[in-house]
Amino acid sequence: MGSQHKAVTQKALTGRRRSLLIGCNYLNTQNELHGCANDVRRMMPVLEKLGFASDGVSQKVLLDEQGWDGPKPTKANMLEALEWLVADAQAGDALLLHYSGHGGREPAEGGGYHETLVPLDFETAGMLPDTELFEKVVKRLPHGCRLTCILDSCHSAGALDLPYIFVGTEDQLQKAMAGEAVRMAMEVRWKSDFEKWAAGSSKELFSDVGSLGKNVWQMYQDGSATGFVTDAAQNEGLAMGEVVAISGCRSDQTSADVADVSSFGLAATTGSAGGALTSALVEALQRGQEVTYAELLEQMRQELAKKGFAQVPQFVSSLLVELKQPFRLDGIWVEEGEQ
Known about the structure:
Blueprint: E1 8-12, E2 17-24, H1 36-49, E3 59-64, H2 75-86, E4 94-100, E5 103-107, E6 113-117, H3 122-125, E7 128-129, H4 130-136, E8 146-152, E9 164-166, H5 170-177, E10 185-186, H6 190-198, H7 203-208, E11 242-247, E12 257-258, E13 274-275, H8 276-285, H9 293-306, E14 314-317, E15 331-335
Parallel strand pairs: 2-3, 2-4, 4-8, 8-11
Antiparallel strand pairs: 1-15, 5-6, 6-7, 9-10, 9-14, 11-14, 12-13
């Protein structure tokens, strides 16, 4: 692959904005968590300040908490809400999904794992695997539409089957923050290579990394593929919607449920417990300062490391992202000369 790229900037979107927030505590089960519904309630005012209205037309909320009389995050309700989120999506729309709950892994045919989101009734209805989330959400987004996903769950880096992953070594982050053109890299076998990287071998990952341009989406032209094909040439020619996911950890890690989020500088008005990723993200965003993608990722990682959490938040994307560009929820990436 060549290394020459046009300059990439963000274009503000002016279409509708929709958000889906899911917080599952698994009340009165052996899988019970304590801060997931609180995470949703902490995110809502932050999103409202960023232009995502909290009315029933623009936002759906699924919660599992004491006293909640709205829809719960069962598998059927989650699928219905995801359908609502992407229904009739058009160029110019900005969509957002925030999920706080358990994440899982299921063995994949041929080896490896599928990452999953875990509905309230997963023991009877099953989990939501990455392949199904890709099929029902990512695949359906049109070119010019942006979906931001915040996944505060275990094993979440691969939960949407997206092809670009910013491994984010300290050196790469420093380069990005210094203004160098460090991009998310397309790695066509990133899942298996990433597992090897996590186990201590990086040669497979970095030998396969290649930067691709905007037109990387051919694999669904005939509707027969599931996920990204390994031949980059087959991924050219079809532009689809842009998806940026902030995940709580690597695919091989767990995300912490924090008993007291006051250490993150957050008020306990919605309860003291919360997810570590959501707490770090809310803390960073509510400062009201413009930050780049690289700076936001670095701030979250430093905050979690300082508090003793081993999890390493990730950026995963459907398209190339310039990490030196300002972080925003309502922008798409355009190359120089595009309208």
